[in-house]
Specification:
The protein is mainly alpha-helical. The chain has one domain. Helices cover 74% and strands 0% of the residues. It has 30 helices and no strands. α22 crosses α25 (477-494). The two termini are 55 Å apart.
Length: 595
């Protein structure tokens, strides 16, 4: 029996690939035809995404085959969805990240932050979290975690070396104890009064309190806890930091893409407005998360009292970080150039259309210049700009050799380091959203959510956060956002609520995967260090999930409502409803004529 189960387990992916399309086939016949065919494709893709029966990016390509064959969307409308304006923005952000990683600007910044904050356990965890969160705003969460782990490993190696020294010292102390016991025995034999005196001392100690614990064991436990805190803080901070910017994580971009696809008149969400909403949320979440991790692993208790510091350990850890920084050498021309272009990149994105003041994009035709235009312009310039300071000595001295100066970016670097699979995933999400809209599936789902239409919008937002946060622990955040965002949008329209009121907390909750190692790639990277256990992530992550849900709803109902004007039902949603109804009636008339 065990052998049979083992073979079935080995063939599980093949069985899912064959059985899933067969099991979901009745959906096509039970539901209305167009909606059923669209849901059939979505259920197959959701199953493949959750089980990884196919690679995630390959599953994202299925609509190119299935939508035209089943008559959901023509190929001419399906294929362009894989490279929308949002995909171009994300693609440019990935290329910018390649330039930053190539010249090691991110590593220099992270080490500088750690040197400034200090290396006692609480401040070391804070330094790791701040560095990781800032980098993950601009780089992918996985790349940021992979970059920070070697720094953490070097610090932990120093802590482990100190633990070995303390254990050896404790062994030497214990080896001396028998001699002390022997001398005490001789004293008791020689002087019976000494025995009575010792008994009195023991009774007084039992009344006054227990003896002091072994200092070496206490320090060892604290260092092991600090090591866990440092390791677990990196993926958590990467996840939190990724929420801050529109390009920081895939669900944010899926929100942007689905708004542009389903609500073309909407312009509330852009790089600047999202940052204004997400940055206070990120800082609040990050600081609270740091206090929680410091309480769990950094020796911080409810009275904010820290355990006794080990000065020698702190000096050694600081020396390790300083040595890592020294190995980088002086700042190079390429680092300065990339930092300048990166700063210009961020500045132009913020000031394009910040909403509270007039942006520079008002000088151009409306909706012509988007965030993607800004990002790709900066990236193209970096393919031209030299990576070394130009020298013109060859113009003066004919004997001076002329060597070509390589640019900051080359296509080979981009080709080797860009995460192309994520771009395909985004495209797959946009195709599904378009299919739900055109086929009428989103309206069909919304029509079956009547009970929720009468629920208070704030309660509906809270419930959506709870459901999505639980679901994303077992599925990728990209797949989770693709599945839930169209449903939340349709539910909001049915309830005459601003669609952003449900979509924003939903998309933020897609990143709340703190409890399981398999929930996100950053969690898996930290778990592979071998020092973390599943129970460590479970007991720490459950409160992180709760805090994230609380802060997301707090942000939504305070400053988020002001930034995105969530208290009113927007005109762009009403226009979209009318256009969709007109398109649906036209398609129905066409089908009747064909019949």
């Amino acid at each position: 029996m065990r052998e049979i189960l083992h073979r079935i387990w080995n063939l599980r992916r093949h069985l899912i690939l064959v059985l899933a399309p067969l099991l979901f086939l009745p959906v096509v016949f039970i539901m209305p035809l167009q909606e059923g065919k669209c849901l059939y494709v979505i259920l197959i893709m959701a199953t493949f995404w959750c089980t990884e029966a196919l690679p995630l990016s390959v599953t994202a390509l299925l609509p190119i085959c299935l939508f035209p064959l089943l008559g959901v969307l023509p190929s001419s409308k399906t294929c362009p969805m894989y490279f929308l304006d949002t995909n171009v923005l994300f693609f440019a952000g990935l290329i910018m990240a390649v330039a930053v990683e190539d010249c090691k600007v991110h590593r220099r910044l992270a080490l500088r932050i750690l040197m400034c904050l200090g290396v006692n356990p609480c401040m070391l965890i804070l330094g790791m979290m701040l560095s990781t969160a800032f980098l993950s705003m601009w780089l992918s969460n996985t790349a940021t975690t992979a970059m920070m782990m070697p720094i953490a490993t070097a610090v932990l190696k120093n802590l482990n070396d100190d633990m070995g020294i303390m254990q050896r010292n404790a062994t030497l102390v214990n080896a001396d104890e028998p001699q002390e016991n022997e001398s005490a025995a001789e004293e008791s034999n020689a002087n019976p009064e000494a025995v009575e005196e010792r008994k009195d001392e023991v009774s007084r100690l039992e009344i006054d309190g227990p003896q002091q614990p072994n200092v070496a064991d206490d320090e060892q436990k604290q260092k092991m806890a600090t090591g866990k805190g440092i390791l677990i803080s990196i993926p958590y901070a990467a996840t939190i930091g990724g929420v801050t910017t529109l390009t920081g994580t895939a669900p944010n971009l899926i929100l942007d893409g689905q708004l542009k696809s389903n609500f073309p008149q909407s312009d509330e969400v852009n790089f600047g407005s999202w940052f204004l909403f997400a940055f206070p949320f990120t800082m609040l979440f990050l600081i609270t998360g740091w206090l929680w991790l410091s309480f769990m692993y950094g020796g911080l208790n409810l009275r904010l009292w820290k355990r006794k510091k080990n000065k020698e350990t702190e000096v050694r850890a600081k020396a390790v970080i300083k040595a890592e920084y020294t190995q980088l050498g002086p700042i190079t021309f390429a680092e300065s150039a990339v930092a300048t272009f990166f700063s210009l990149f961020v500045l132009l994105l913020f000031t394009r259309d910040p909403k509270f003041v007039m942006g520079w994009s008002k000088a151009f035709k409306p909706k012509y210049v988007t965030d993607a235009v800004v990002a790709m312009t900066i990236v193209i310039i970096m393919f031209i700009f030299p990576s070394q300071k130009p020298s013109f000595k060859w113009k003066i001295d004919p004997n001076e050799p002329f060597t070509p100066n390589p640019p900051l970016l080359t296509w080979k670097k981009v080709q080797d380091n860009v995460a192309w699979n994520v771009i395909l995933l985004l495209g797959g999400g946009f195709v599904i959203a378009k299919g739900c809209e055109v086929s009428g599936l989103s309206r069909w789902i919304g029509s079956h959510l009547h009970p929720l239409e009468h629920v208070s919008p704030s309660v509906a937002a809270l419930l959506s956060c709870l459901v999505i946060a639980a679901f994303t622990e077992f599925a990728s955040n990209t797949a989770t956002s693709i599945i839930f965002l169209p449903i939340l949008a349709e539910l909001a329209i049915r309830a005459k609520v601003n669609p952003l009121y449900l979509m924003i907390p939903g998309v933020v909750s897609c990143s709340f995967a703190f409890m399981l190692p398999v929930a996100t790639p950053p969690n898996a990277i930290a778990f592979t260090s071998g020092q973390l256990k599943v129970k460590d992530m479970m007991k720490t992550g459950i409160l992180m999930n709760i805090l994230g849900i609380i802060f997301a709803n707090l942000a939504l109902n305070t400053w988020g409502s002001l930034i995105f004007k969530l208290s009113t039902f927007p005109n762009w949603a009403e226009i979209s409803i009318n256009q969709t109804r007109a398109a649906t009636s036209t398609s129905v008339q066409f089908l009747n004529i064909s019949d």
